[in-house]
Amino acid sequence: MRVIEHIQEMQIWSEAEQQPGKRIVLVPTMGFLHEGHLSLVRDGRKRGDRLVVSIFVNPTQFAPQEDFAAYPRDLKRDLELLEREGVDVLFHPSADDMYPQGFQTYLEVEKLGLLLCGGFRSGHFRGVATVVAKLFNIVRPHVAIFGEKDYQQLQIIRRLVRDLDFAVEVLGHPTVREKDGLALSSRNSYLDPGERKAASSLYRSLKQAEGLVRQGERDGSRIVQAVRAEIDKATATRVEYIRLCDPSSLEDIGNIEGEALLALAVWVDKARLIDNVLLRA
Amino acid sequence: MRVIEHIQEMQIWSEAEQQPGKRIVLVPTMGFLHEGHLSLVRDGRKRGDRLVVSIFVNPTQFAPQEDFAAYPRDLKRDLELLEREGVDVLFHPSADDMYPQGFQTYLEVEKLGLLLCGGFRSGHFRGVATVVAKLFNIVRPHVAIFGEKDYQQLQIIRRLVRDLDFAVEVLGHPTVREKDGLALSSRNSYLDPGERKAASSLYRSLKQAEGLVRQGERDGSRIVQAVRAEIDKATATRVEYIRLCDPSSLEDIGNIEGEALLALAVWVDKARLIDNVLLRA
Q: A109 vs B109: CB contact, 8 Å cut-off?
């Protein structure tokens, strides 16, 4: 596996690999890799001829009071894991290279970026959209894979690809979970054993919502109420939002007809965890 | 010359033309072509192997009260002119194709986009940056050429290319002028003979500034004052701004040391005209 740290070197590689019939796959990550990432990487291996994984803890998607500095990092371990997966290139740029002096160009996905997490994490999706556009221009992938745990992020990336005509196929990959259902996340490393146990209430609450819909419940507020009750039962949890929304526009819906996304963000002590489920009436 | 109206068709062409050592040149325009455009096109012909000219009157770079509907158009004549210049592809998309339903992704070059014209044309450079990013992704040029009359636009495009890592070389092309010095612009067609005469005051004022600097004048406010006096002498002119600024950051400067950009926007009746000159102390 080749490790590339500089944008220009990555671009030279990508330019040389632009050949008819050959597909470059990109799996963008912030590192501290877990089985969720590796599952994307394995999927990526099958989707094309060259596989690039990026590791970059992107400062512009963290608000000033957020956990940029504390975000877990372990490049040595990440390297070993990716080596085993047959990755061709690990792209691992520095923040100074990605955001040189005078940097001032940002992408904004205006409606989708303000809903759900966007209402609480000011500037977050602006940072995500901007870094993803940069990675697309640097790596020039034909396919890019993102996890469905970050459902809103996935929808925003799909939208910006369509709106700005990036020639990239965006694929979502199902959330990978622990045995008790907790969605894998690098931020789970913030949890102590008691918090870890409390965190399992997120998945339990989503399953409960699924059960209610299966039993015929269509009233969004009753579903959200049941989800909140389940999470509130756990200690050290604080709900940031629980929303039932349209899976494409992410706008709130009152009653389920067809498909609906149930998305939530919950603080478990200092860890902000997100999860979601698609509900079908 | 092939005329392509659909984004997808253009992307298929571009994808097929991505070959080692082969360079695609793009000259983006809003049509109603004049010698200024044609001079860019002729330069473009020499800069690569394939030459694409785009004609698209971009609605997102016009504010609601501006002249989008009135902007002059003459596709038949443009086609004839480009045919003669040996252009390979004219890309002429529709607004519906460029801005499909639900479109919501915009680029913002934050500092540069708020100065000079950005202070008067709200959202203008957001629209410019967004459409240029789209054109880059659709045409995938190796080189793109822009006129220096729109000096701020050129700087903004250089900045967004650097910031978002577009693999595009951006070239500026010197302003082409009428005999009396008026910078060629499609908007000159708005002028009646009297206004046309008044419009020549813009260039005269810039030459006067050059003369003052040559004589040793370094005081920005005195230079700006002289420029304003020259323009005010003409009938039907209304100065929007006259600024002496740093050629890179576009921020105001008080005194000329080294290079300075003198940029102005002046209304001549209903025509908003811009021009600029680089002054060297």
A: no
Separation of alpha carbons B157 and B136, rounded Å: 11
Q: How many domains does chain A have?
A: 2
> For residues B134-147, b (16+ Cβ closer than 10 Å) or e, as one string?
bbbbbbbbbbbbbb
Query: Which A residues in the span 130-169 are in contact with B, Cβ-Cβ below 8 Å?
Result: 130, 133-134, 137-138, 140, 159-160, 162-167
- Cβ of B104 within 8 Å of Cβ of A100? The answer is no
Q: Which of A145, A173, A201 is the last residue of a domain?
A: A173
- Are both B241 and B130 inside the same structural domain? no
Which positions in chain A touch B165 (Cβ < 8 Å)?
7, 11, 134, 137-138
Range of the domain at B51: 2-173
Residue A178 lies in a domain: no
Residues on chain B touching A137 (C-beta within 8 angstroms):
164-167
Which domain-ending residue is among B173, B199, B228? B173
Each residue's pLDDT tens digit, B195-244: 999 999 999 999 999 999 999 999 999 999 999 999 999 999 999 999 99
- Which B-chain residues 175-214 have CB contacts (< 8 A) with chain A? none
Mutate to test the interface with B, among A17, A155, A163, A168 (most CBs of B within 10 A): A163
Minimal C-alpha gap between A133 and chain B (Å): 7
Q: How many CB pairs under 8 A join A and B?
A: 85
DSSP A84-126: HTT-SEEE---HHHHS-TT--EEEEETTGGGSGGGGTSTTHHH
Q: Write out pLDDT tens, residues A160-202.
A: 999 999 999 999 999 999 999 999 999 999 999 999 999 999 9
User: Chain A partners of B18 at a C-beta cutoff of 8 Å?
Assistant: 18
Q: Which of A105, A112, A160 sits opposite B109 (nearest CB)?
A: A105
- Cite the active site residues of A: 37
- Whether residue A129 and residue B105 make contact (CB cut-off 8 A), yes or no, is yes
Question: Which of A:47-76 have CB within 8 Å of B?
Answer: none
Residues A167, A199, single domain; the answer is no
Q: Residue length, chain A? A: 281
Q: Are strands B89-91 and B50-55 parallel, antiparallel or unpaired?
A: parallel
For A278, the 3-state DSSP assignment is: strand
Q: How far apart are CA A280 and CA B145, in angstroms?
A: 51
How large is the average pLDDT for residues B13-36?
95
Q: Which two tokens stand for residue A27?
A: 């799996």
- Residue at B181 is within a domain: no
* Amino acid sitting at position B106: Y
Which residues of chain B from 216 to 255 reach within 8 Å of chain A, CB to CB?
249
Closest residue by Cα to residue B239 from B267, B263, B262, B269? B267
